[in-house]
Amino acid sequence: MEVVIVADAAAQGELVASAVAELIARKPDALFGVATGSTPLPVYQALATKVGAGQVDVSRLKVCQLDEYVGLPAGHPESYREVLKREVLAPLGIGDEAFLGPDGSAEDLPAACAAYEQRLADAGGVDLQLLGIGTDGHIGFNEPVSSLASRTRIKTLTERTRVDNARFFNGLDEVPRHVITQGIGTILQARHLVLLATGAGKAEAVAATVEGPVSSMVPASALQMHPHATVVVDEAAAQQLKLADYYKATYASKPAWQGI
């Protein structure tokens, strides 16, 4: 996989937003896979700036969701659908009709998972999928020991992940215990995967993902098997990479027109 080490989150956001803009210019009706959390926010902000300046036309762009909590009522402010409406769709001026996501409040959750898989397929597949990474190496909500061939399904959150997400709720008791998530096998079908990480707290997970063995204990390590995976990290998140100097030199010598 390609590893790009940038100075900070702002540089990360501008770089990845430029890659998304290039995709849209090449394929206006692309399917853009988005993720929640604080890490991708600079990407969305930089992309919104480009849209506002008339540099990018998102009128035909489609956006899809990586995961969703189970059991939150429709319209709950912390459902990922609502979060993405606030952080991605509204700033970019994209309507709900262009948004694909799983139904975490469905009565038949397995059917909802299968239906979402089918919707992604019917849309032609994901062109570029943004990913964050957990401190334990999870992507989406594929926790350690998740099958590397898994499809969209219901998962039980680990206590560690619930504690990490409690800051978005009024205490740990409000954090759902189950989610619908794209499986690792589903994620790997995207044409381009871009994993983002910032801060020293993610350094161990990044090193295990990039330089460790492919293992279900580090779900993100499955990106090593993808033909076009890009890991974009800041200096702090890169501090445990043994080959950091090599990655920097390789990217510095890359022709600018190749992008990421």
From TrEMBL:
Keywords: Allosteric enzyme, Carbohydrate metabolism, Hydrolase. Its EC number is 3.5.99.6. Belongs to the glucosamine/galactosamine-6-phosphate isomerase family. NagB subfamily. It is an enzyme of class 3 (hydrolase). The record marks S146, R153, K155, T156 as: Part of the allosteric site. Allosterically activated by N-acetylglucosamine 6-phosphate (GlcNAc6P). The lineage of its organism: Bacteria, Bacillati, Actinomycetota, Actinomycetes, Catenulisporales. The keyword Isomerase does not apply. Pathway: Amino-sugar metabolism; N-acetylneuraminate degradation; D-fructose 6-phosphate from N-acetylneuraminate: step 5/5. Catalyzes the reversible isomerization-deamination of glucosamine 6-phosphate (GlcN6P) to form fructose 6-phosphate (Fru6P) and ammonium ion. It catalyses: alpha-D-glucosamine 6-phosphate + H2O = beta-D-fructose 6-phosphate + NH4(+). InterPro entries: Glc/Gal-6P_isomerase, Glucosamine6P_isomerase, Glucosamine6P_isomerase_CS, NagB/RpiA_transferase-like. One of its GO terms (molecular function) is glucosamine-6-phosphate deaminase activity. The active site is at D67 (proton acceptor), D136 (for ring-opening step), H138 (proton acceptor), E143 (for ring-opening step). This is Glucosamine-6-phosphate deaminase. HAMAP family: GlcN6P_deamin. Residues 10-226 form the Glucosamine/galactosamine-6-phosphate isomerase domain. It comes from Catenulispora pinistramenti. It holds the Pfam family Glucosamine_iso.
